[in-house]
Amino acid sequence: MLSVEMFSTAVCPYCTAAERLLKARGVEHIDKRRIDLDPALREEMMTRSNGRRSVPQIFIGNTHVGGFDDLSALDQAGGLIPLLQGTQPEA
Question: Residue 34 and residue 56: Cα distance in Å, rounded?
């Protein structure tokens, strides 16, 4: 399974929902990066996500998935599990 990285903040219901969905799909570890604790992480998140400022911003392997709505849509379209397993081409 590919690594999962999520930029988040302490109080973020969408981050919690994203974590719950990822765990339901078999993800055991999420590298949570708290942008509210380190302003440099916000800059890194914005650079890597093409300017997005909202959290969560989720990366699976080298693929920027986006926020919770993007993650949920990917799951509903049947693309999340293949991406997590590395059987779908990364962007």
Answer: 10
